[in-house]
Amino acid sequence: MTNEITEITGGQIENVFNLLSSSISLQIAVVLLIAGMIIIATIYKKFSFWIRSKRFNYTKPHLADFLRIVLLPCFALVLISSINVYVQLFEPFNEDEKKIREENGIEKLTPHRTFIKIINTINVLIIGYTISQLVPIILNKRDESIFEHKDFDVWKAKQGFDDDEDELFFRLFEWVPPKSIPNEITTVQFKKHLRHVDGQKFLQNFRTSNGLQIGSYKKITKNPFSNWRSSEDKKYLKYYKDCINGNNKSGKKLKLGAPIEEIYNRYTWAEERRTHNFEILIPGSKIPGSTKKLIPTSVKKIIPLIVFSSTIIGVISWWGIDLVVLATATGGLALGIGLALKETVENYFAYILIRKDKMLKEDDMIKLDSNYRGYVHKITPRITYVRHPLNESLAIIPTKMLVSNQVINYTKEATLFPVVINIGVSYLNDPKQVVAILMKVGNRAMLEIKDHRGIHLIRQNKCPYVKRNKQSCGCDKDININIKQPVVRFNKFNDSSLDFTMWIYVKEYKNQFKVKSDIHIIMFEEFKKYEIKIPWPIRTIYQSDEKLEAEEIAKLDEARSKIIEEFGVGDLTK
């Protein structure tokens, strides 16, 4: 006769209770089990807090997560296994209990064996839960390893980062001269430069007319990646120490393990550098809470649920419960819960779509349907925080609104942002001369306006540094269209002025405000130098001789004409 899977019944559970009431050893085992679990949970809570307040939680976050997740299951497994051994040693089965009784062709467990099976079930559930929590950590660690190698490739392409020490790149790689000489340099000059060290450095920094380097690099150490990673670890360690000792922008010692995190861990620090083109991160410069990054890939958040759910289904099947009946019984309940949590479910799936399609990310500048404009501070599966650029407010909206409503993203895949300058000048000025001076202002702005690292903020077809055989600062990268700037237009004859517009393109949305301010300063200097008058917005009654005033302005007519010859008038006459 074929045996069917053993079913658990209410009578068996009742028999287990009867067994417990008749056995002091089993009663002690149950008390020890419950008390042990309470003690383990208390210890685990304190241990988790202890880990979050330690240095290795920031320097080795994956290891800290591993220890935090593995500790509780390990203690629980040891406790339950000890209880299992205790029961089998002090409550041995007699011959009748070892026999499996059959009633109506269905196998029945004795109460003693049912109790043991319950303990084993708890063990299986703990193991399944542990595995479900470890899988995302393993996947994250693998992703971080992939990102590290990509960062290393970027570092090689850049020939090092700005914050490298002792010319790290050139200690790990050696320049190899090209086999073919570029057209921009003669053979005699090329060979002359190769004879001495300074000349070789000149060739290393040399750029062709297309902005490309010449020659290649070969490694001179066994494992450059390992050396580079050690250098990055040292940079993070300095960042970490500056955060905790008060040597940071906030001017205070940042706390470890604070409920609202103020310090990046090692991998979030690398992610932030990656996002901001490997800039130097200033300790204490972020708003509290912005350091806590959610897992960007929604699949990694679903994997633990899938693994643990599979474990539960396996256990249910092991106990002989009909899965079809169970699914039918829980279907109505699931439907009711789904309707009650409709808003929550919509927000969660909107969060998944945003992360999967990369529609938005933290620090993107967006404009909501309500005309509220700000930076995305944090996106969660329930709500999203949008911070006003001047920090005057914080908009808190349901995450689903980012998918269901119109949202303008000023940052995503955008590499050109126009800076528009409107200016009016006196009718006594020559429009062509004004255009030429504005072209000069624009050209000065392209060369002179930089950030604190010396990087040009205005987009250019070719970086000015390349003309001096220096590495491009990136102001000429990722431009998919051919732009000619600055652009100057004579707009209209206004009531009291000739109106002109100049526009120029910057790299990032936030750069436009500094660029506009600096252009105004340069414009003031040039207008003052060449006597370009800006009329007051009032009605002027002339009491003087207009002919005499025109003669005074004409004194600098020759100088202004030279500006036209030098800078041209753009495509004004085309």
Q: Which characteristics define this entry?
A:
alpha+beta; 574 residues; single chain
- Please summarize the sheet with the most strands: 5 strands, antiparallel
Overall morphology? elongated
Helix content: 40-55%
In DSSP terms (H or I, runs of 4 or more residues), the helix count works out at: 20
Look at the helices and sheets and give the structural class.
alpha+beta
Distance between the ends? 99 Å
Which stretches of 5+ consecutive residues score pLDDT under 50?
1-10, 93-106, 287-297
Query: Using only CA atoms, what is the Rg?
Result: 36 Å
Percentage beta strand: 5-15%
- Tell me the total number of β-strands: 12
Mean pLDDT equals: 78
Q: In which order are the strands of the major sheet placed?
A: 8-7-6-5-9
Provide an overview of this structure.
- The protein has helices at 10-22, 24-52, 56-59, 61-90, 95-98, 111-158, 168-172, 187-194, 197-205, 224-244, 266-275, 298-318, 323-340, 342-357, 401-404, 431-448, 464-467, 511-529, 546-554, 557-567, and strands at 101-103, 106-108, 173-176, 216-219, 365-367, 373-379, 383-387, 394-398, 408-409, 417-425, 487-493, 498-506.
- The protein has 574 residues and is an alpha+beta fold.
- A hairpin with a 5-residue loop joins β5 and β6 (373-379).
- α2 packs antiparallel against α4 and α16 (431-448) packs across α18 (511-529).
- The strands form four sheets. It has a five-stranded antiparallel beta sheet, with no helix packed on it.
